[in-house]
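User: Sequence in, structure out. Go.
Assistant: Echoing your sequence, followed by the structure tokens.
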Amino acid sequence: MTNRIDITSLPNCGIIRRIGHQLIVTIIIFFSYTDAFAGACGNWRWLHPQPNITGPAVLGWNGTRLVGVGLFNGTYSSDNGRDWTISNAANNWDLRSVAGSATRWVAVGHTREIPDATKTADQLVKNGTIETSVDGKTWTTVAVGIIPALNAVIWTGGQFVAVGKHGAILTSINGLTWTRQAPMTDYILNTVANSDGKIVAAGEGGIVLTSPSGSDWLITHGSNSKKEASISSVTWTGSRFVAVGFGVILSSDDGSTWTSQAAGGTLTSIPWLFGVVSNGHYMLAWGYGKLLASTDGHEWSEAAPGPPVTLSDIVWTGSQFVAAADGELETYTSTDGQNWTKTLLGSKLTDASLRGLFARNDRLIAVGHQISRSPVALTSSDGESWSLAQTNGQDEWVAVSGNDQLFVAVGAAGAIGTSTNSTQWTSQASGIATRLLDIMWTGTQFVAVGEAATIITSADGITWQTRTKNTITAKFHRVLKTDRGLIVLGQKYVENPQNPTVPLLTSVIYDSTDGIQWTPVSFPAGMHIETLASGGPRLLATGGTMAMSSPDGITWTNLATALPEAVIDLIWNDDRYVGISKNGNFITTVDGTSWTTEPLSITGLTPNAMRRNGDKLYAVGDHGGIATTSCGAAAINTPTPTSGTTRPASNRAAPTSGADTSWLALAAAFAWRARRATRSQ
């Protein structure tokens, strides 16, 4: 039998009941959080750069959506040819073609080559694969048994038709159940197209097959006994079939009788062409660095200027041509086939140093500089796929923040860039020439800080006002929102009483309720802090291996604790403070008095900034590095201060005076959590 005391039955004990209720909540929270504190965050994984991801090699259009597929599992989807979403196919395939009906997408290809030193490339087995999707984003492998590698698929309006190696032809009404048709040739079939009443497949050796239904096929060009120039692609223009290939262009009004077209006009010879497409009155054919144009399929000329890359595919959507760039993370669009607009799908940028990070719901932005020191920005709507934004200006960016209407980046020589969509940035005049190191949106204005004690503010991100006096000597590198208002953190050199010839580096803090008037905060000389985090039960700051805490940003206490190593950024993660070090380690604490080191679990990332978005942490660093991990008990958005910047590193030893008692600090943290829990009930 268990003896229990009913607090509610005690006379005149309202205070006890309230304390007891809060204590119970605190204890529950304590033990529920103990597991969170004891366990490490999830494994980090790379987001950028992605060296094994290329843009789509081939494209498909089903009347409402574009889908692109290619090597390394990459699949893309877009409703307009400009905004693309990247996803992955279900298995380890190279996808060569994609087509869609109104309700289903089908992509075909083959398995990856598995290196085998005992076999030549021709001897390596590549089995065919068929992937299917209802939305072009989530893909499932269709069980079709062992089939030859497939090169092309179309939707005829009534069925899917796929062709490939060894003359393979497969048909399906729904994209799920497939019938393999009797092959008419052992040649590789590279392409398939259809008109209203005829299906045409073509490929190696100049072979052309035609069928009215997809099941009964005839050879109408080339033969199994005589090889001609191979055909890469065939299309229906609305009045005739046009086929292109290895130095050849063929045309046919009925798919049965084919005529070879000779070079003419500005063309001295027909190049190796990969594909051909038509919008009904204008045709484009493309090859290695070549783009040809024709209005009738007979006379061809070079289409100038054309995209400055080799194209791997082009489709017509009914309103525009959309082209995929071979091996590049970019596409091109054109309404007339002559004037093209580039769209970046992602970035392989590896020569950039990313210094600042902004994270809020559906928008993440990383900023920094390239080797030339010019600004660079990467943006993501989902935290997974990152694209290189268009920036201008000559000076690097080191921090970024934003609100619902505008994103603002700041950097060297007073550089300021603004963007309404995070993909296109415009330089703004700040009126100063000093280096800006941090920025945040307070809810009513942007506040940016930097060297020479610079504090500037702007309500719109365009017009800026200086808020500090020239008599202040400090370098401000952090601005943060607190319950009182705002504080900025900086550093300056002061006289060293122990060695007058060597100045003493010390931190300075200024406090403001409105961002306009700033007041210095009394801070111990010789105490040097570099990182500062809010959002938890207290403000926590670190410098080298030292930590300090404050309830309000005004009164500071040295925690007399030794961090395992210096951290370059620090955030509150809803249940603990999380720091990240240049050595690629997590440094975590509940209250600032006891710290735990957790390896980053990936190699190669030299972090410069870290932010939280939902239940994930994101870190950016040198060489264009971006990584993420799941960390935190609940998916709660990061508090308002979501700017990002780089802080200087230090190995200064921790002072030893004025320590908090560890268990009292821990109890305060849990009591703060308990009050939040009881207020929300």
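User: And one key feature?
Assistant: Confidence is low (pLDDT under 50) at residues 1-40, 633-681.
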